[in-house]
C-alpha cells in the first residue's frame, strides 16, 4: 500500500522535506525541489518524462526500508537518534556556518553565490537546538516512562530547508567552484539529508509507537 505522503497531488518540496532519500531520487531524475518544488509529484513526473507509478514505487521503497532499519526497541531508537542525529547536527552546523560565511564573503559577487545561506543555517541551528533540547530534557524521558508523545510541528524546519535549497540552487555547484565552496555543499547535502532522516524517524516511527 502506498504511503499517503506519496499522493500524486503532494508537492515535490514537501516529499523531499519529509522522506529521507527522496531528495537524492529527485536529483537523479532531474526533478527540482527548489524553484520547481511546488509542482505536484504527478506534474514533476510528467515534466521529467517519468512514469508516475515507477517514481512512486522508488519513493515507497525508501519508506519501507526506513521502517525496517529502525531499532525495534524504543530505548535503542532514542539512543540512536540522539547519537546519530542530535550530536551530529550540532557538530556539523558548528563547522558549516562559518564556512558558509566565508563563501558568501569571498564569492558574494558571483551570480550563483549562496547569498543568505549563513542566516538560513543559523536559523536551522536555533530551530533544531530548540527541538532537540526539549526532546532530550523532557520528551524522550516521558516516552521512556511510557507516557507517549504528541506529534511535533515541523513547519519551521521544512521552511528553512526550503530556503537552503533556494539560495544554493538545489546545491548546484558552479563551474570552477573553489575547495571551500565544494566542501560547503558536500557538507550541506549530508546535513539536509540527515535532518530529513532524523525527523522522519521521530515523526513516523518513534512518536506513533504506543506507550509502553
From TrEMBL:
Keyword terms, alphabetized: Cytoplasm, Iron, Metal-binding
Record carries keyword GTP-binding: no
Top-level taxon in the UniProt lineage: Bacteria
InterPro entries linked to this entry: Hemerythrin-like, RIC_family
One GO cellular component term: cytoplasm
Pfam family name, one: Hemerythrin
Coiled coil: none
The protein's name: Iron-sulfur cluster repair protein YtfE
Biological source species: Paracoccus haematequi
Amino acid at each position: 500500500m502506498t504511503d499517503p505522503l506519496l499522493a500524486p497531488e503532494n508537492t515535490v518540496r514537501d516529499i523531499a522535506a519529509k522522506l529521507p532519500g527522496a531528495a537524492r531520487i529527485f536529483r537523479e531524475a532531474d526533478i527540482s525541489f527548489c524553484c520547481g518544488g511546488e509542482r505536484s509529484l504527478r506534474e514533476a513526473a510528467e515534466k521529467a518524462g517519468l512514469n508516475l507509478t515507477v517514481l512512486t514505487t522508488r519513493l515507497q521503497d525508501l519508506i519501507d526500508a526506513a521502517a525496517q532499519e529502525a531499532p525495534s526497541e524504543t530505548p535503542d531508537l532514542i539512543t540512536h537518534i540522539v547519537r546519530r542525529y542530535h550530536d551530529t547536527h550540532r557538530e556539523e552546523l558548528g563547522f558549516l556556518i562559518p564556512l558558509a560565511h566565508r563563501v558568501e564573503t569571498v564569492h558574494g559577487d558571483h551570480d550563483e553565490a549562496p547569498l543568505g545561506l549563513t542566516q538560513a543555517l543559523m536559523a536551522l541551528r536555533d530551530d533544531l537546538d530548540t527541538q532537540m533540547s526539549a526532546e532530550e530534557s523532557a520528551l524522550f524521558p516521558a516516552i521512556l516512562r511510557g507516557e507517549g508523545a504528541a506529534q511535533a510541528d515541523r513547519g519551521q524546519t521544512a521552511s528553512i530547508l526550503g530556503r537552503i535549497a533556494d539560495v544554493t540552487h538545489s546545491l548546484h555547484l558552479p563551474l570552477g567552484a573553489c575547495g571551500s565552496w565544494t566542501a560547503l555543499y558536500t557538507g550541506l547535502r549530508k546535513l539536509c539529508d540527515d535532518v530529513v532522516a532524523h525527523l522522519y524517524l521521530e515523526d513516523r516511527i518513534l512518536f506513533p509507537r504506543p506507550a509502553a
